[in-house]
Design brief:
By secondary structure, this protein is α+β, with helices and mostly antiparallel strands. Helix content is about 60%, strand content about 15%. The longest helix is centred in the last third of the chain and has 38 residues, at about 110-145. Belongs to the RRF family.
Length: about 190
């Protein structure tokens, strides 16, 4: 393994950590309706748990209402029950061949809880990035120990890995600030 391989691996893993955080932040409710909050709701589809987007079409009816139209009419009650039983605190209602899911407005207290949740998620993302940095630095030290690279090369590579880490953490901080702004906007 070369220095370039170590840096490339670290960069790829940091990018995956940021993508994971982005996906986690997308699940956090902001008071406005968006179909992404239902992506992880599991529906009992003929005995096997299946993600809601696989059994129904999700659309936005208006700023606060999500429309869920199952591909099969007989799945209507199952879909409604799955949304109600999820831990999202939503109260769906059947309206013809569609399940309407109104998203309640967030109270100030709930918004602050959401901001805390976002900060917690971001800290997990930062920890993941720092773990990648630690692993990369350990691999560089191993290369020096095996006499594959010089200590100067290792120091330069460590500085590059640190720059990657700083950039990833700055990206995470920016995502958190944007999400906080989105949550606190009434």
């Amino acid at each position: 393994m070369s220095v370039a391989d170590v840096k490339k691996t670290a960069q790829d893993k940091m990018a995956k950590s940021i993508e994971t955080l982005k996906a986690d932040l997308a699940k956090v409710r902001t008071g406005r309706a968006h179909t992404g909050i239902l992506d992880h709701v599991m529906v009992d589809y003929y005995g096997s748990p299946t993600a809601l987007p696989m059994v129904a079409n999700l659309t936005l009816i208006d700023a606060r209402t999500i429309g869920v139209q199952p591909y099969e009419k007989k799945m209507l009650n199952t879909v409604e029950k799955a949304i109600r039983d999820s831990d999202l605190g939503l109260n769906p209602s059947t309206f013809g061949e569609m399940v309407r899911v109104p998203t309640p407005a967030l109270t100030e207290e709930r918004r602050k809880e959401m901001v805390k949740l976002v900060k917690s998620e971001s800290e997990d993302g930062k920890i993941a990035v720092r773990n990648v940095r630690r692993d990369a630095n350990e691999q560089l030290k191993k290369l020096v120990k095996d006499k594959a690279i010089s200590e100067d090369d290792e120091r330069r590579a460590s500085d590059d890995v640190q720059k990657l880490t700083d950039k990833a953490i700055a990206d995470i901080d920016k995502m958190v600030v944007d999400k906080e702004k989105e949550i606190m906007t009434v």
